[in-house]
Amino acid sequence: MIKRLGRHPWVLSGVGSLLAGYLKLVYHTNRFVIEPEGVHARMEEDLPVIVAMWHGQHFMVPFAKPSHWPAKVMISRSADGEVNAIAASKFGLGLIRASGGRNARQIKKRGGMKGFIEALRALKDGYSIAMTADVPKGPARQSGVGIVQLAKHSGRPILPVAVATSRSRELNSWDRASVNLPFGRGSIAVGDLIWVPGDTDDDALEAYRLKVEEGLNATTKRAYELVGRSDG
């Protein structure tokens, strides 16, 4: 009964709203810096982009986006995903309910292909797409090929983004989730754009997958360094 209650729409809606409120508290009570300086203004001519982030490090990423950038976020259809989706909607983000997988069966079950097509259409319409590069449920911080395929077929670049705070609690979960805490310092780190040519063959996609992985790891490391931490 408790498990069913936890999946009730009213409960999920309440938890999602609380999460959104808490994240706003964290953002407004930390002193944030952005690196590189002026990155948003320079990025305008390259919009829309595919924002890459890691699972477990994604909670504060909505605050990395200027309010005038139209964007949608890809979120799984799980109960946890529902909570995240409700919180994301509170920040004015559009939703694509899907996630990737390691094989065709997982992709079909999670609505991966439908989400891929929806993301392509959204990019064509001028929306930036935010999505986790690693695939649930792991390995953590190992990029899947889905985000690279999206860049190839859309012609839009991948933008690694990471957000860190000086105070946080790390959970013992598959994605090493970091729960950011208020009253400290925060950072938003943005990596270099990664373009995937439309004529890239399947063998060459692996090189771009590794490039996304390395770029996002470097960006995450830099975000932690900016708040005086070395555990990112």
Question: What is the CA-based Rg, rounded?
Answer: 17 Å
Largest sheet: 7 strands, mixed
Q: Secondary-structure element sequence?
A: HHEHEEHEHHEHEEEEH
Number of helices: 8
Work out the strand percent: 15-25%
Mean pLDDT: 91
Q: Helix content range of the residues, please?
A: 40-55%
Structural class: alpha/beta
Q: What's the assembly state of these chains?
A: single chain
Reading side by side through the largest sheet, how are the strands ordered?
Answer: 1-9-6-2-5-3-4
Distance between the termini: 39 Å
Instruction: Count every beta strand, where a strand is a DSSP E run of 2 or more residues.
Output: 9
Any low-confidence stretches, pLDDT <50, length ≥5?
A: none
Overall, the morphology is globular
Structure description:
- This protein is 41% helix and 19% strand.
- The protein is of the alpha/beta class.
- The strands form two sheets. The chain has a seven-stranded mixed β-sheet, sandwiched between helices.
- The longest helix has 25 residues.
- It is globular and about 50 Å long.
